[in-house]
Amino acid sequence: MAPSSYQAPSRGDKTDKKTHSQSLESNLSNAQTTVAKLISGKGDAIFSVRANDNISHVVQVLSEKHIGALVVTDQNGALQGIISERDIVRRMAETPGQTLPQEVDALMTKNVVTCSPDDLLSDVLKKMTEGKFRHMPVVKNDRLCGMITIGDVVNFRLKEVEYEALRMKQMIVG
User: Can you give the residue ranges of the CBS domain (predicted)?
Assistant: First the structure.
């Protein structure tokens, strides 16, 4: 016996009300998120130093900007390297008390792994995890156009998952 609140469907109740709980678009939308989408929300501010700057200047900039790495550029803004807090800490362990006057060129990573705005976030996250680094410059047509961190990628993805969960809840509740 049906509950008293049940009302049998009548003719035309579900006309043109098709639902698509799973589609190729919905299942792959987050996997297809690009670096450009992350940067559009984060901003494209890039903080840089020069190869001949000393480490004390780098430490000051990192502290003032509350960031963990800086790109190293030439006078034209072309990428020459990257220097991170980790680079500085490692050098401090090797040369205690002698690190701050050293030049950036001596500590920076010169073969920088970069990404483009069109790269998928999932691919970038994989590169960062495999390479064990937390910062990646974004380059388009040989020009710097941003910097992303592993934290940026994780936070962006968490927001997407929260939004996805909210959408699912709204679909279920109505």
Answer: 38-99, 108-164
